[in-house]
Specification:
2 copies of one chain form a homodimer. In chain A, 41% of the residues lie in helices and 25% in strands. In chain A, helix 2 packs parallel to helix 7 and helix 12 packs parallel to helix 17. The first copy, chain A, has 17 helices and 17 strands. The first copy, chain A, is globular, with a radius of gyration of 26 Å. Chain A is an alpha/beta fold and 416 residues long. In chain A, a hairpin with a 2-residue loop joins strand 10 and strand 11. At the A-B interface, helix 1, helix 2, strand 2, helix 3 and helix 13 of A face helix 2, strand 2, helix 3, helix 8 and strand 10 of B. Strand 2 of chain A pairs antiparallel with strand 2 of chain B, so a sheet runs across the interface.
Chain lengths: 416, 416
Amino acid sequence: MPSLPDVEIMTIGDELLYGQVIDTNSAFMGQELAKLGLRVRQITSVSDRADEIVAALDLARQRAQVVLMTGGLGPTKDDLTKHVLARYFGAELVLHHATLEHVEGIFRRFNRPMLDVNRQQALVPANCQVLFNAVGTAPGMWFESQQTVFVSMPGVPHEMKYLMTHEVLPRLQQHFRTPPIEHVVVQTIGLGESFLAQQIEAWEAALPPNVKLAYLPYLGGVRLRLTGHDDGQPNLRARMEALLPSLQELLGEHIFAEGEIKLEEAVGQLLLQRGLTVGTAESCTGGLLAHRLTSVPGSSRYFQGSVIAYSNDIKVRELDVKPETLATHGAVSEATVAEMAEGLRRRLGVDVALATSGIAGPEGGTPEKPVGTICFAYADAHRTVTRQISFDRGRQLNVEYTTTMALNLLRQEVVK
Amino acid sequence: MPSLPDVEIMTIGDELLYGQVIDTNSAFMGQELAKLGLRVRQITSVSDRADEIVAALDLARQRAQVVLMTGGLGPTKDDLTKHVLARYFGAELVLHHATLEHVEGIFRRFNRPMLDVNRQQALVPANCQVLFNAVGTAPGMWFESQQTVFVSMPGVPHEMKYLMTHEVLPRLQQHFRTPPIEHVVVQTIGLGESFLAQQIEAWEAALPPNVKLAYLPYLGGVRLRLTGHDDGQPNLRARMEALLPSLQELLGEHIFAEGEIKLEEAVGQLLLQRGLTVGTAESCTGGLLAHRLTSVPGSSRYFQGSVIAYSNDIKVRELDVKPETLATHGAVSEATVAEMAEGLRRRLGVDVALATSGIAGPEGGTPEKPVGTICFAYADAHRTVTRQISFDRGRQLNVEYTTTMALNLLRQEVVK
């Protein structure tokens, strides 16, 4: 069996060095490569200057046997990567007819005038294998040079993702005959990383030597990923899955799903299974709760609608919150979110409702209710459940965390 | 005048290479360094292995005269940076008393037991200058070695930001005297990169030699960034800004702002200036439009509320869409979004309203209205304006693009 290659990721573009764009491509690539068992040796971000790209390529091939590049494939003159690679690998640019037809098709479809610079996107170095980019105009390119594989992809994230998934990863698997590796992901919520680690310490210590556990924290919880390496025995995946019931016993309802699935998807599946419709009444979350619920394909089968009530007036008129409740308890109170959830249920005629109201910040805090004071509620035909939490890590994270906690409340209540 | 140093940013940690953490530190550092006129030559992310950190340092000092490192300064055993640097610069670790007192103070304040690993955070290589970290336990370290400055900072973003702002940037300013560099950003919307480039070709060609133009595309438009280098003449920034009126003439209302500002912020400022309140009636965007509007701090001064109407029933009951309109034109039609926007205006009593309805996909398309058929509308007291577009790049991007186009319609109509 050939030894596994190290990979270097090279992201190209002055905008990365100026900090005007955050490099999210590398993290996606790193995750996907790790799933194949390939190690990323280094991530290198370089400018759009030809000499610096070449210098980085010379060094990368000394460190790694695979160099994955993104960026610099656009139609404008600061996009140099293709020309640099043609020179680097000593090839002419030639017209790739399938790409030209594809690009022409895109411009026809959108009824846009096709310029010469667009036509040039179908030029590729003669000695590369073209990786068809179904979702954009710049093709990917695969080069093999002295035992090293070089791949160039567009920097636009969804185009890079398409090419990684459909072209690059399968070809790497084939080229390097990567040994089988299995991943089992368990989604937990509501426990911090170190507390979680403590809870499952003995379970983790008893894992077989070929199974590794990784803690992948996110805002509100931790994903647990088991990576199983080939040990020559059959049924690796089944043996890994057999480890889960004892984990489930330790963590109970803190586990919301197995597999790469988002909380809003897990919630959607529960609602579908139970034939329940849902709606939201949102103040501080400003629509993010509805957005997360509706980001799931097919969510129209259970999601009906929402009322975003930023102003108190709308809370009263559209959600039937009692003015006395607002006067006595304030807009950010468990009493108010309870009435918001109940009001929404009645108004929209949905089975279950979520409501939120809080001080997201940076303004609006008071000594009694500082920024980060957040209330949310769940209501169904039988009961209303409310929560108050305190969480302040800035407006954006406060809102995100609140939506996660509200979705989790929905999940917990629906299964009761 | 000494020549300008190039900077290399080095972020250290396996979690970056595995893609478990997105490197946002580099972008912050890149932005701040650009403001001082320092060029980032390369960003390098390396593992927690000592030999690989040393190899990266050896190469970095060949490329750059300043090497800024983050990460690997925590108290756990995979945090190696300090030990590697002590060896690299040939120094013993010595106790830094001010840091020890600071760390002890932090543990006292939070009433946490202080472990030996915490005490070790006050050890620093004898030949560094300690950069006091007021917001964390790991100090920054400044080394000078053979004309190169090496700085090590914690990887925790808010600690790195504190040290950059209060220690590193002022010291770099003092250490290197750098001529001014200026960035002017122009936000455009509604033109693709290549079409935009064609529109401003002559303008771009006539730019002074010390001013560079970069195209930074995003979903729905392009940010244009002018970078001006010192040419020995005064008023660089003013001369760059004098280039903008002719750009404005070429691009007209495709320019929505100057400077680093988001579309939703620009829209918010317009609404505030005109004293207008806003609300949204959303079908396909499912709350994202409201979320973007409310993501702006202080948006409660103009944003009132929304109705998310995924089901036709809610469109009729909560937004007064006529059943005949739905029956004749369908839910995804300019007629329906017009009634949604008008209905929301009346219901919520807002000055201006936006509405959306479309087939976000992946399901729900028909031969007449395929996935990506999207309608949106603007309504105020005097008129209703509708648009129909066709855009299909997957559910998530379809929804994002629709919100951007709807916000842009609001911007265009409000200024009329």
